[in-house]
């Protein structure tokens, strides 16, 4: 029997492991876990504090993009050059959008910091430079376009068309509209309450073998949980469309919901019939915010109605002049002789 075998004869694995660690320490070496192990640990630690949609997003990013590249690596051996090459691969070889790459690198950064903290590793953590996300020009319906769409929806109004009209005059998000029930609209007080949202998220469940699933959850932030007053015209329309069961979804008029993907399909048909180009459902939200500013809304009020976390978001996205406003202001210069 070898000396090593005699040491561990009759002992459990823990004793053997401790002995190995002691010897390893003398030689300046210690067992090192693969990065993939820390990924699983980080996910499980985060899960209680995350919504299903956020957890699913992180899980898919890690499984699809991070583990295949870094899973078998030792975290402290990952260099800045490795990450730069990885970023280049995502952007140019895989042709992922800057926003997607930004999200992937944000998760990778959090994972690396977690590993360094867990392992008590000192020194500089690899610095991750995230790609700049280009600001897309916001599509806003002109007043004429908005009127054409509104008239079209009112002409043969049904529950779905009514829902789209409601989004036009409140600026609510597509997921918020899909999750909206009649119990969330107070006809007596004249307001609607946003307290939930619906979205289709990725799923890696082995049970149903489906790639995506519908999740109805609380809004994306505390600020998104809000009350929006309704105009008299909108309130009158709500009273005409109201159903007997408060649990009914506004978009369907019954207890069966309409998911965002289906609503987007119908919305494309509506805008196509009106001859509107390059219009997405979120265009309604941009248009609502722009009209509010044109009528003199203060930023604080608009920010709360939109459900933004702070007024800075509202200012950055909507405090710009439309072409109509620019023309009106240029006309004022004409009066001064310019």
Task: Give a written overview of the molecule.
This protein has helices at residues 3-8, 13-26, 35-46, 52-70, 80-93, 98-118, 143-155, 159-170, 174-179, 232-241, 260-273, 281-294, 299-306, 311-318, 323-334; strands at 185-186, 191-194, 197-202, 212-217, 226-229. With 338 residues, it is mostly helical. Strand 1 (185-186) and strand 2 (191-194) form a beta hairpin.
Count of beta strands: 5
Largest sheet: 3 strands, antiparallel
C-alpha geometry: globular
Percent of residues in helices: 40-55%
Tell me the distance between the termini: 103 Å
Q: What are the segments in which pLDDT stays under 50 over at least 5 consecutive residues? A: 1-30
Mean pLDDT: 83
N-to-C SSE string, H for helix and E for strand: HHHHHHHHHEEEEEHHHHHH
Tell me what portion of residues adopts beta-strand conformation: 5-15%
Q: What is the radius of gyration computed over CA atoms, rounded to a whole number of angstroms?
A: 27 Å
* Strand ordering within the main sheet: 1-2-5
How many DSSP H or I helices?
15
Based on secondary structure, the structural category is mainly alpha
């Amino acid at each position: 029997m070898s000396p090593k075998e005699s040491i561990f004869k009759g002992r459990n694995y823990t004793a053997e492991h401790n002995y190995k660690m002691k010897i390893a320490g003398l030689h300046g070496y210690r067992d090192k876990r693969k990065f993939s192990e820390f990924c699983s640990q980080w996910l499980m630690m985060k899960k209680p504090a995350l919504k299903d949609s956020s957890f699913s997003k992180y899980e898919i990013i890690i499984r699809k993009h991070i583990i295949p590249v870094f899973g078998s690596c030792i975290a402290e051996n990952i260099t800045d050059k490795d990450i730069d090459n990885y970023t280049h691969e995502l952007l140019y070889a895989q042709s992922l959008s800057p926003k997607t790459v930004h999200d992937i690198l944000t998760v990778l950064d959090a994972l690396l910091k977690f590993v360094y903290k867990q392992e008590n590793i000192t020194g500089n953590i690899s610095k991750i430079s995230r790609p700049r996300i280009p600001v897309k020009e916001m599509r806003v319906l002109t007043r004429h376009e908005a009127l054409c769409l509104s008239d079209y929806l009112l002409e043969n109004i049904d529950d779905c068309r009514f829902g789209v009209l409601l989004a036009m005059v409140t600026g609510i998000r597509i997921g918020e509209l899909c999750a909206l029930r009649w119990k969330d609209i107070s006809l007596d007080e004249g307001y609607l309450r946003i307290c939930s949202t619906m979205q289709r998220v990725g799923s890696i469940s082995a049970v149903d073998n489906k790639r995506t699933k519908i999740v109805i959850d609380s809004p994306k932030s505390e600020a998104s949980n809000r009350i929006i007053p309704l105009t008299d015209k909108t309130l009158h329309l709500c009273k005409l469309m109201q159903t007997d069961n408060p649990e009914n979804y506004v978009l369907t008029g019954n207890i069966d919901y309409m998911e965002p993907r289906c609503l987007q399909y119908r919305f494309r048909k509506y805008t196509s019939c009106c001859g509107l180009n390059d219009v997405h459902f979120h265009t309604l939200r941009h248009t609502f915010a722009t009209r509010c500013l044109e009528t003199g809304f203060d930023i604080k009020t608009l920010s709360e109605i939109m459900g933004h976390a702070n007024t800075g978001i509202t200012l950055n996205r909507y405090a710009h002049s439309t072409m109509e406003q620019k023309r009106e202001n240029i006309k004022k210069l004409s009066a001064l002789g310019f």
